[in-house]
Structures are given as structure tokens and as C-alpha cells.
């Protein structure tokens, strides 16, 4: 399955809610367990960068940080905009 | 399939190459076709932010911007680090 298919299928689930959404995923695969894990700081920086383009209130963002092992971390940021916010 | 599963399966493919990888995906689902598409600028900004934490040469980055429709855009940034780059 391609990534585009992944998001297309997740789009279906919310098709009726008429919202604008922005989803950011950062996957960090480390070869050595000792290499630094900078995902938490990166999360804050990326949010700041997005705020240059759109207004995001803190309650519009949900953040998930998953670790499947010491070597793979996946950070997920979901931003949902109210329907009449844009346009 | 969860996102973590997605990345776990893509990790398998490169398990033998012993590299560190960073993958950033930005999916933007717009409700109105007229709302601005800021992904190209966001791409540059995110790369700049990552460079605060790691050195990235231009040839270590591959960028894909896919549009499945006017309403869904998926930006993918793949960064591969040389094996002995990190200590």
C-alpha cells in the first residue's frame, strides 16, 4: 500500500465532517540506540513553522509519539481546522 | 493498518543497509479547493528546522509531492544518513 492510499482511505472516514485537516508524521529510524532522539523538540519546531501559514489553537492539535522499539519512533501530529475558519 | 505498522514494514526492506533514516510526511486535506496550498513552502521550512538537529546535505534528501485530487496533497521527505555520520 502506498502512502497516498493510506491517507486516501483515512480521508473516507471523515468525508462527511467537512473539515480541513493537516497531518504530519515524522518517522525516525535509528541505527544505533545511542544516537540522540530529537523528535520531541522537532515536534515543537514543526508546529511553530506551521503557525506561519495557519492559525492553530492548542486544542486543535493532537500529538502521538509511538515507539515500536528503541530504533524506530513515529511522531504523529493531527491538526483539525473548524469548517468556517478558512476561505 | 496503523501508521506504526506501515513504517515497521517499510523498515524491514532496508534492515540490511544499516542506515539511519528520517521520514517526514505531511498530508493536507482541504475542504475548499480555494484554500491556499502552502506545502511547498512548508517543505523548505521543515527541512530547515531539521537541520537544527542534524546535518543534511542536499543529496541526502528526496522529496515527493503527490496529489490524489484537488483536496488531498501528500508531501513526503526522506532523509538517509550515511552509516558513520552519527556517533
Automatic annotation (TrEMBL), chains A, B:
InterPro entries: MinE (IPR005527), MinE_sf (IPR036707). GO terms for biological process: cell division. Keywords: Cell cycle, Cell division. Pfam families: MinE (PF03776). Belongs to the MinE family. Prevents the cell division inhibition by proteins MinC and MinD at internal division sites while permitting inhibition at polar sites. This ensures cell division at the proper site by restricting the formation of a division septum at the midpoint of the long axis of the cell. This is Cell division topological specificity factor. It comes from Rheinheimera tilapiae. The lineage of its organism: Bacteria, Pseudomonadati, Pseudomonadota, Gammaproteobacteria, Chromatiales.
